[in-house]
Every structure is written in C-alpha cells, then in structure tokens.
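Fold it.
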Amino acid sequence: MTGVTRTSVSLLRAASTTSAAASSSRVAVAVARRSVAPLARSMMTASTSALRASALTRASPVLSMQRRTMFIQTESTPNEDSLKFLPGRQVMESGTHEFLDTRASMASPLAKKLFNIPGIVGVFYGPDFVTVSKDAEHQWSTLKPEIYSSIMEFFTAGHPLFTDPESSHGSSDTVILETDSEVVAMIKELLDTRVRPAIQEDGGDLEYRGFGEDTDGIVKVKLKGSCRGCDSSTVTLKSGIERMLKHYIPEVNGVEQVLDPEEEIALDEFAKLEQKLEKDRKKERDMGFSL
C-alpha cells in the first residue's frame, strides 16, 4: 500500500510539474502575444505608412516630371535688351499681344508676374514664344532664372493667359476687309505672309497702321516686341520691308514707323537730354577741357 501511495504521489507530482510547465508555457505564449501584438500593429502601421508614402512618391514624380520635362529654350534677338523664350507650346491662339507697363499687364497673369521682376520693361506674346525686354541697368544672367521659373510655373499650372478670353486672339490688323482696295489688300497680304514670319523669328512683330493711297504712298507700320527700340529697326524698315513692298507694289513710295504718344514723348525727352549733354561737352571744350 505504501508503495502504491508513493507511486501515486510521484505521478501526481509529475503531473503537477507538467501542468505547471504547460501553464507557464501558456502564460509565456500569452505574454509573447501581448508583446508581439503591439509590435505587429506598429509594423503594420509603419508598412501602411510606407505604402502610402510610396504611393505619394509615385504620384509626386509624375507632377515633378511634368514640370521638369518642360524645356524652355531661349533665342537671342537683334535687340540685346530683348530675349525670346520658347516654352514648347502654343502661346497665342492667333495674332500677337504686347505689354509695355505694369498697368497694361493686369490683363494677363503671366505678364503681371513678369513685370514684378525688377528690370523688366516689356512683355510680348507671339504664336509660340514670349519675348521679354529689360532695361539697360540689369543683366540677363540675373534675370533669366526668375523668368524661367515664372514661365514654367505658369504653363505647367495650366492658367489662362488672359483674364478676358477674347484677348487671346490678338490684333487683326492685316485681315483683308471688303472695303480694302486691291493695293491695300496686297500690302496686307505681303506683310502677313512675307514680313511677319521673318520678324517673329527675331522675337518681334509689326502692326499695319495705314497706307496713303491717295496722298504720299507711304505705308505706316508699328514695330513691336524685340523690334521696338532696336538699333537695327531702321534697317529692317528700309532695307527689308520697304524694299520688298516697293518691288511688288509700284504704288508704294516708302515705309514709316508709327510711334505711340508715350514713345514720342520719350524720344523728345531723350533728344532734349542729348542736346543738353552736347552743350555741356561744347562748353567744356571751349574751356580747354578735352573729352
């Protein structure tokens, strides 16, 4: 009996030890699960965040690529203070448009943005280019990066070029009207098909202002964009436009440039300044000073 009892006690102790071990194992597993669960949740959260970040990163480069793939080219013009920027897309639907001051630039968000850059004095829109003109005090090396940025941000954002959509068609000065004579119609056609493309290659344009058909036979035009104030504008008028028109149309006696009132005032002031400087130089020479 004693042997049986001892055997039973031993079995009970073994069973108790096994049960305790199993219980300890269950406790350890439960503890491990409790420890692992937050870690797993943390890892899942981190993984989800990483996936979201990855998705955003995948989406972001698309926009970034759109901005970076817009390659803006520049071309020099005969006017050293005017530079032609080509964004690689259409600018004007038809015709051209010019802005000569901040007030006029209010009609176009891009022109307004460009005029906010110190040193910019003119903005001209062509079919597929933007000509920007500066004053003589500023250098292109400091202006070009900001102009690049302004043009790129504007076109990639897809903003309208004008606050009034009708302005995107520009002027229609060379449209042949029913009231035009045969001579005037020929002048307009030559200006539009022969002269205008060549001038736009240099970042400028011209505007037909009339023809003295019954008077002096003079064709009046207004130069725009890079051609405005260019040293070679006289050569362009006389050696280019005038010679071609007189060759094809015998009724044409010459070509003259028309100036706006503001331009005439500016030229008058410049002429007065030149006269004053010449008087000062003459006075200094008379006093024995050499220049």
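The two ends are 141 Å apart (CA to CA).
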